[in-house]
Amino acid sequence: MSNKLWGGRFKKKTDKDFEEFSKSIHYDYKLAKYDIMYSLIHVVALEKVGILSSGESLKLVKALGEILKDVKTDKFKPDLRSEDVHTEIQNRVEKKLGKLAYKLHSLRSRNDQIVFDEKWYCLENGLAIGKLIINLIANLFFLAQKNEGQFIVGYTHTQRAQAVSFMVYIMAFNRMFERDDERMERFCNNLFAYIGAGALAGSSISRKNYKEAIKEFFKQDIRAGKIKPLENALDNVSDRDFILEFLSILAITQMHLSRLAEDFILYASKEFDFFQLPEEFCTGSSLMPHKKNPDFLELVRGLTGRIYGNLTSVLTTMKGLPLAYNRDMQLDKEPLFSSTETVKDELKIMAKFVKKIGLKKDSISKALCDESLYATELAEFLVYQGVSFKQAHDLVGKLVQYSEDKKTKIKDIPDRILKSFHKKLDHKSILRIMNPHYAVSSKKSLPQHKMISRRLPKKKTRKNK
Amino acid sequence: MSNKLWGGRFKKKTDKDFEEFSKSIHYDYKLAKYDIMYSLIHVVALEKVGILSSGESLKLVKALGEILKDVKTDKFKPDLRSEDVHTEIQNRVEKKLGKLAYKLHSLRSRNDQIVFDEKWYCLENGLAIGKLIINLIANLFFLAQKNEGQFIVGYTHTQRAQAVSFMVYIMAFNRMFERDDERMERFCNNLFAYIGAGALAGSSISRKNYKEAIKEFFKQDIRAGKIKPLENALDNVSDRDFILEFLSILAITQMHLSRLAEDFILYASKEFDFFQLPEEFCTGSSLMPHKKNPDFLELVRGLTGRIYGNLTSVLTTMKGLPLAYNRDMQLDKEPLFSSTETVKDELKIMAKFVKKIGLKKDSISKALCDESLYATELAEFLVYQGVSFKQAHDLVGKLVQYSEDKKTKIKDIPDRILKSFHKKLDHKSILRIMNPHYAVSSKKSLPQHKMISRRLPKKKTRKNK
Amino acid sequence: MSNKLWGGRFKKKTDKDFEEFSKSIHYDYKLAKYDIMYSLIHVVALEKVGILSSGESLKLVKALGEILKDVKTDKFKPDLRSEDVHTEIQNRVEKKLGKLAYKLHSLRSRNDQIVFDEKWYCLENGLAIGKLIINLIANLFFLAQKNEGQFIVGYTHTQRAQAVSFMVYIMAFNRMFERDDERMERFCNNLFAYIGAGALAGSSISRKNYKEAIKEFFKQDIRAGKIKPLENALDNVSDRDFILEFLSILAITQMHLSRLAEDFILYASKEFDFFQLPEEFCTGSSLMPHKKNPDFLELVRGLTGRIYGNLTSVLTTMKGLPLAYNRDMQLDKEPLFSSTETVKDELKIMAKFVKKIGLKKDSISKALCDESLYATELAEFLVYQGVSFKQAHDLVGKLVQYSEDKKTKIKDIPDRILKSFHKKLDHKSILRIMNPHYAVSSKKSLPQHKMISRRLPKKKTRKNK
Amino acid sequence: MSNKLWGGRFKKKTDKDFEEFSKSIHYDYKLAKYDIMYSLIHVVALEKVGILSSGESLKLVKALGEILKDVKTDKFKPDLRSEDVHTEIQNRVEKKLGKLAYKLHSLRSRNDQIVFDEKWYCLENGLAIGKLIINLIANLFFLAQKNEGQFIVGYTHTQRAQAVSFMVYIMAFNRMFERDDERMERFCNNLFAYIGAGALAGSSISRKNYKEAIKEFFKQDIRAGKIKPLENALDNVSDRDFILEFLSILAITQMHLSRLAEDFILYASKEFDFFQLPEEFCTGSSLMPHKKNPDFLELVRGLTGRIYGNLTSVLTTMKGLPLAYNRDMQLDKEPLFSSTETVKDELKIMAKFVKKIGLKKDSISKALCDESLYATELAEFLVYQGVSFKQAHDLVGKLVQYSEDKKTKIKDIPDRILKSFHKKLDHKSILRIMNPHYAVSSKKSLPQHKMISRRLPKKKTRKNK
Asked: Which of D206, D232, D387 is the mutation pick for testing C, counting most C CBs within 10 A?
């Protein structure tokens, strides 16, 4: 560590192993953009309290602007000998401006900077994830629409339950992702960065000066509203709620992705045989020449471990920490970045993936011929004929059992026997009721005209139609 | 299990051990209130589609009302031989009305009922927890106000950092709890129960009929708005997002409680000696006669395990479940109830606890004499004199080191030597700067007039003044 | 709390809510047996140092013996007003013997007792779980043996991979459970209880006296060896490693159970259709009359959440606790008991369950006709003919693709075309190689004579033969 | 991915994003050493079954040996376009030997290789961690011995409890680490790698051939014993127990480290003031010039999140996976490597750290003057005088309270008043009993001659004396 932001009272050199151990530059460099933003606002504030002359301020803004440009054009390669991103940027300014750089770190603390940086990271990535979710929703909707009118077997307990429309099946996942998107949107709406907490006790720059500095920096940019006047300095530097909330939201999204993956893995098996998966997202076996494995879906399912683990990690780290900042908190970043990047990758690839899924319609049709799928409709038919539900349930249960024992289809049972189960039962009504069309059309509780997702941008859905 | 809601097709008796293993009545009886509410709405809907006559409907409403009354007056003792709360209520209706009861379970499924019940449980408990948080905030504020004007040592890294006002210290925790309350409020605002999903495929009762049934049931009750028309049947019966969100919110609240507990444990130690804990919440030792232990705070800290564990539990259970309902989902209730009841107890007792904390002002004053607490103020003083921060930081670091080496107070260092560190330093300025009054009053970034909590009901805060 | 083991210095009554909150009697009463054992040894030790006369000692032993008898005959109903099991037993002795009871709690601490009790709980339950695992292994082996000579489809990635013998398939689970059993056995072998740690600092009773007391108490009982002389008092009262180790072992066992459950759920689906599950362990649907759901397996899979959550819980609670005992540690018991009882129930029912599984041999045979299952054997045949594996892999991959495209079986492809893929390929060799008998018998790396479990008691396995 | 180990039947190119997403080369290259070891054994086996001529075998051994040398001399830079380490090594062999390389991957599968590789990783790192633990134990022992005869305050509930010897205090941590070491040793002793499982179904190479190949490869090397004949092929490729066990062991070690860290953070605070931490392992503040923060200890405490999170991660991933191999399992490696490397770093630095801790003996002595520390000894004194413990406990509790109320030391209370508490109490006995020498020497249950660690190598401990 060539250049530290501290050390006046230290006589001994930092132990090399510990120095490596405690560094964060190899991952927190990802926050450079936000850290520079903080510094740019801070320069304005320092000028206001007279610590910087307007000339000095101008030079600092220019130097910081140059570094920011490097970041944005991907030319920012951090010096891995720096302790952290704050030190790295400070060093770069020093290289450009010499001793003037020393004034930049007046009246502020890395404790305050880091929480500012992380909040902006969450904000920007929260918005990006929202967009990726919307895109996945659109592509799932595309898959459903491409197969409009298609029915599919609905399961409970991994046992065939009732026939449902494929659209409703797909839209079940879209409802999950819509909630994820809404949750993320609410999170972003309610997330605000604060400025001026110092190390823990506040700063001598007034709230008024900070407000003006923010205003001058952002000008008309609506993002100005995301920085609010400080509410509590001790709380601000030790608050990691937003990271836990962000990781919790991602954990729920990941859970949804794991369920989608599980269903699709099953549907792509030889046994279910409902889906043809796109080869571009499958792999083979180094030993078994015939294999086409749903690796993407398996990795998505398996990544649930990582995403849950990252949440556990930060929750554990934050347990029982005394006020205010503690170095333990440095360890929030790797799990945050890991979950963010992982979920973004999954969403991005999943959207491409689902669009290319093919339906094996013959195989699905064959499964839909399973009469037990319509037992419920048959029981409900009897209920509308005045039979109590318990009785109807018993009776149809026995009819199903009879057909299994006799290895015959219910529709092939002669009226005489059907009527011995219940007088209202006959071949004709069986035919009418025990099929997917009747099953689906008899469900009046489902929305008819709201099939398309609420979260989908209007234009997009229109185009899809 | 005397009486099951299924079994028509089953020839063999359920294994006794499995029956015990799979039961949920011993905990899900807590949902009876909400389950009856669902049934009452359902009765209206069944009448609308002609499955119940108005006479039958009336009888069912009366019977359900009687059971509800038992629940509300704590007279509802579930028969532990029942499989679950739905069966239990069904059986009670049957005992009252005989075969008419059989019609009650028409066109609906326990899959749909249970998610309805759990959502109302979350809603009611979410509101209750909000109130308990507000109460804790009020009592923490009371503690702070009782000690107005008091300073305290602010820590980072469990090392003395800077002097802060005791009000700001306490309000740091209040800020945390305010966010918890806001988070819970947002959760409740965005939580809606749906009706009519059947087992997974929807119901033959129309949306219109459901809407009217809800309207007729609730009349003017604003809670009517918390039941919305079904959006997706498969999703509805397999959605447990709200439980995960609820448990995540509680996990963050619990983390805050653990931090409060940790700080207060430290402050109650002989070494810190800042707090006198109320004896009513401490215990002694069976061996060591002198002990007065902060057991309540330790239990609160330790309970973090339970609350995190419950979140892990439901996250794990939900991983990779295929659509739609699976029996695994039954296992969401015990963690939900456990976290809810635990956090409610903690909040309730903590509120009483904090009100009775005494400050050991002599001991705190002694700690505030530690001059290193004001090193930052001294450095910033130099900055305002034109010294660059880096230089000021170095210089004060060396001055602190000097005073430690010489075992002398900085305020006792003669001007001659002070000036050798920097010409602007002298005894007079040291005296002016290195004390808590200056330290706190020089912080201009803190809010001055918003000390009281935003979440506190107006009246209460006024009374407290 | 009528009667506490502490309180001399306390002036205020304990807050009622806190008293309820901090109690453990409603669950730690399960440790009564072990707590009395500790007391019985302690009485001997107290006599040795002269604190008890031999007459007093005799009376205490008698009183404790009576309570122990109540515990063993299930007549021990704890008074829920007691703080914990130690207090409860102390109170009972007091009721029997009056003031003499006061001497019983000399020179020891609940901190020491509780860790002793918990270790014995783990020991006894560890052994019991070992037996349940062995029983499950035996029953799985029974299932395999009942179906000797049966083949089944082996999967990777939930895609058909290669044919394997059903025995090997079942024995894969038995290998997992064998490791669990071995792990538990090692745990029990290496677990020792200590005595004499006091609250944290040790006791004035000498090691020699303790050793003799243990010897006199246990006489020839081999369990005497499980109590060792104290190694470190501070460590002993704050050690919860054994609980974490126990919960980790159970977590791995639970993971195995979840995998077994998942496989069997799939195999019981209409789509795989390999298994007929025993009706006694299934349930139906309250709405869908035809359903027979694998609820037991789903609950086992879902319980993974509980078992993982309990491990997370105690790990979290133990994080960062200062030495020595802290009240947080009280919270280790509920997760410990919960995981222990849950896994015991699962193992017990699973053993009964697997024994009654029926194989749907027709359906399995049909699946085994899938030629792609033998692609690997075909490739390896070519390798033995001198083809490099990469080439053989490519070539068979293309052959599989060809047969899929042409919708023909490989065995129906004329020799002419086969030979165009590779000259060594012909109808005859295809027939010989592409079937489960060849596939299984060509695997020379598998053990032939060690099919039976190493962990199965000799007699049992012999009988099974 | 220039060169894959599969793909014969694939017509479409792998999607670029998915390819990146699914790669593991950027971390599994760490397994190269073990993967080559597997290959070297495999070459011998392939020769035995005639697939390789002895000339081919020799060439392959030479090529693999060259790659191994690169790995050992840190010259192995993996091509990040490779899919995984197996592919990377295959490609390198191909570059060296052309088509002969194609024969290397005969009759084996990456499913089998990876589990072999990971087991050796665990073995080697398990041994390395054992050594690091022993080293930490030695250095903690060094710290204790350097301060022989020193007493320190013993705490329970973070409240002063009883005086203990500093040696016993430090040895409490050593007992924890001894258990960690023993646990790891047992783990290594019971870990065996298997060979010949193929993808899931076994291999056509006989057990005898494998055994001979292992023997020929290892010659006299005792590590030969760590590879055992295959027990079950399906189990072998899907077994990750050893990783979960390894991560559980590390989680317990990490818990111990977090407790050590917490204690030392407290003891380094101005309030406790027992320890002088080595500056080389502390850092300062960028804002507050006086700060010397225990960052290393805080990071250790905070890393508990990472280590617990990694365990949660793999447990979650493994939940409910069907037999046999699934791609999800690829995700076990990053958590495994992360926990291994983290704990190694912590142990290594902690060992250096503890050796340099200085005791602030004046400050400790002052704390040891607190008379309440000896209340227990006083009560026990009375017990030996025939007072029942309950009475003695009450009485001393009141005496402590009296001295607190009167703000007087117990040793300054006149005999007259002492005797009013109990006739056996007087100034002389108070002086004799209420001091650390008496307190520590009266504890007869502690081992006297086994202070040194059982796990410490004999020579080392002798030298330390």
From this structure: D232
CATH number at residue C419: 1.10.40.30
Q: What is the number of other CB atoms lying within 10 angstroms of the CB of residue D148? A: 10
Residue-averaged pLDDT of chain B: 93
Residue type, A153: V
**Which residue range(s) make up the domain with A239?**
111-192+231-362
Using the predicted structure, report yes or no on whether residue C210 has a pLDDT greater than 80: yes
Q: Which two tokens stand for residue C202?
A: 């040790």
Domain co-membership, B300 together with B325: yes
Query: How is residue A280 written in tokens?
Result: 């571009």
Last residue of one domain, picked from the residues D362, D382, D412: D362
Decide which of A348 and D459 is more confident: A348
Decide if D306 is inside a domain.
yes
CA distance C384 to A253: 49
Q: Kindly state whether residue A21 falls inside one of the protein's structural domains.
A: yes
| ipTM score assigned to the predicted complex | 0.95
**Beta-strand (E) ranges in A101-207?**
151-156, 159-165, 193-195
Task: Tell me what pLDDT residue A429 has.
Answer: 94
* Token duo for residue C295: 């609820």
DSSP type of residue B293: B
How confident is the model over C331-385, as pLDDT tens digits? 999 999 999 999 999 999 999 999 999 999 999 999 999 999 999 999 999 999 9
Interchain CB distance below 8 Å, C286 and B13:
no
Q: 3-state DSSP call for residue A333?
A: helix
Q: pLDDT tens-digit profile of B325-338?
A: 999 999 999 999 99
Please state the length of chain A. 465
Which residue spans within A293-374 are E strands per DSSP? 358-359
- Total domains in chain C come to 3
Test mutation, C12, C14, C18, chain B, max B CBs within 10 A: C18
Query: Can you tell me the distance from the alpha carbon of C114 to that of B152, in angstroms, rounded to the nearest whole number?
Result: 39
Question: Among D293, D379, D392, whose Cβ lies nearest the Cβ of B159?
Answer: D293
Cα of A379 vs its chain's centroid, Å? 41
Confidence band for A465, pLDDT divided at 50, 70 and 90: very low
Give dist(CA A356, CA A374) in Å, integer: 31
Q: What is the DSSP letter of B283?
A: B
pLDDT digits (tens, 9 = 90+) for B344-398: 999 999 999 999 999 999 999 999 999 999 999 999 999 999 999 989 999 998 9
- Measured between alpha carbons, how far is C247 from C66 in angstroms, rounded to an integer? 33
Q: How far is C10 from chain B (nearest CA, A)?
A: 7
Q: Is residue C224 part of a domain?
A: no
Q: What is the DSSP string of D201-226?
A: T--SS-HHHHHHHHHHHHTT-GGGGG
Residue numbers in chain D where pLDDT is lower than 70: 1-3, 7-9, 449-465
* D171 inside 8 A of chain C by CB: yes
